[in-house]
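Our working data are protein records whose layout never changes between entries. The record below serves as our worked example for the rest of this section:
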Amino acid sequence: MTTVRQRRVGKGTEAAEDQPSEETNVKPDGKILPGPPGGKLWSILSVTVGGIVAISLGLLTSVYVATLHENDLWFSNIKEVEREISFRTECGLYYSYYKQMIQAASIQQGLHGLVYDNKTESVRTINILERMNVYQEVFLSILYRILPIQQYLEPVYFYIYTLFGLQAVYVIALYVTSWLLSGTWLSGLLAACWYITNRVDTTRVEFTIPLRENWALPFFAVQIAAITYLLRAHLQPAQERLTLMAVFIATFLFSLTWQFNQFMMLIQALALFILDCLDMLPTAKVTWLYIIQISGLLLVCVLQFFNSMILGSLLISFNVSVLIARTIQKNLKKGGLLNRLGKLILHVLLVLCLTLLINKFIKKILNLESDEHIFKFLKAKFGFGATRDFDANLYLCEEAFGLLPLNTFSRLSSTLLFYVYGFVLFLLTVAAVIVAFRNLSFFSSISGSNQVHLKDKMEEYTVTLKPDAAYSLVHTVLFGCLALSTMRMKYLWTSHMCVFASFGLCSTEVWKLLLKCLHLYTSQRTQVIKYSIPIITLLYISFKFWPGIMDELSELREFYDPDTVELMNWIKSNTPNTAVFAGSMQLLAGVKLCTGRTLTNHPHYEDKNLRERTKQIYQIYAKRAPGEVFGILRSFGTDYVILEDSICYERRHSRGCRLRDLLDVANGHIMDGLGENEPDLKPSLYPRFCEEIKKNLPSYTTHFTRVFQNKTFHVYKLAKHK
């Protein structure tokens, strides 16, 4: 098992608003009036300073996570095999394709090896570019080959520095989003500081570098920043077109780099749908965003050789359904309150039915079953019946797919982030409810130009919520629900939590709303509070967490996993290059990266045939006859099988969630140990394979010969007979 041990060596303000409000100096026809020369100069100076601060914080974050990675593993000092083992589970699988492209005789041969790959899944040839989101590895490997940097920078450092560099993009995008929402770069500074001080809950890039989300989330943050700017009022046509292009590029890159992109953008589409129905966003801009999502995903589909899972995604079905339903219901936003509520209910039902019908039709035509395990998991997770499905239970028993732990909130509260977030969320939710009710009831019966003028007049007396703030509110609520239900998705929420909380703390609208409710509102008081409280918060964060960050950066550890290193070295030295290995998904990803040997299965689980194959391979940990296990392994061309004591005698999970328990239940067998079993489960006729094989009984030695063992791993060579 990979561990990290202590290294055995010595420790070597602003005074005014940065930007004018969106409504300042605007003619009735929408044209912007020029401001005073002094104001323009101050605006340029403020934007320059804010931009420098944003870039500086982004680069500092990049250096910070890179230093943590080096200090934690002593990455610069360990051997190449140890560096590769540190890319755990699926991270190692993705990095192996970068390594494969680097080591190929030419770029063309490297691409051919990915398109016609017969080493990732034995006795099958698969298209890696179709099955997996690895275009980033392809692009990076080509870039490394053509740039004159080979003599100065090892391939692995080029790879990890690129990922750490993307963290700079991530932080800058969060900073800019908060700045756009609040109108002051002080808000962006606070968002970036919260992101850094809450690093445990906002990112895991320093120890899961090649993970797809570490590539994708920076582009998602850029997309949100672009959407925030797009939703501002009074944009010039050229500005709007450029912003739409930025949204499209960011959406495309996000979709290209992560297989779960469609589910994240579906939540985003739901946020747009809700706000559009409540007349809180401009319909034309929402339509463009729907189209961008569809076109970005379809472009990725083409690049992934028409991956059927993309075509059958709920996102495409939903967006198409919304556009069709809107065409059918042309007068959706006219009429009184009850009339509009009735139309909205009908609209929602129509969109839901169309989405299900279109999605069912596409999956029927394409015979698509690649994502069925996700829906089985969701069905079981939310209590729609117990399941014995092996794949669903494999997800349910992993902590990453469980509910968000309560200690997350205590950590977020220690930096004041969660307290501020809750405060801002409450105020803006109240404002959103008031605005939505007003839109549905009061303004729905007033025509075009009269409605605009009446809204302008009413803003002096009523609660308002700008479109960009409304989108940010619904976005954080929906992704918050996702994070609460699935811990692995918390990084989508916590990063935006930093943006949302900092925006609220620096927002004129939020403080104006609160002070008016308390009958304490004056313009001067609002400005003082708007700047003083964020500055006090920044000082608190700095004084409390700066010493801890310095201690963290001074703590030196080193990578230590001698058993896995010994296994990988033995495989490279004692087995032919064409040998086929079976074992756990997580370990085999490392086997492919470190040794280049052929695998029977791997951790990229988004394929039905692979899931069925993995379940069969995992019978090595079930109660099965040696002849049956041998037959299964030989059917996949297996030459060697690796057994892990950490799985065979697992104690990490409780009874019912150990891998051997999941296999027993799926096979209809009673589980080991004290505890209840379902009444229809029966004792197995055979002992557990991974335990019994170590006794060297004749029924086992006929098929399997032990060729390697250490404290963690046992490798058996399969006999050649069938």
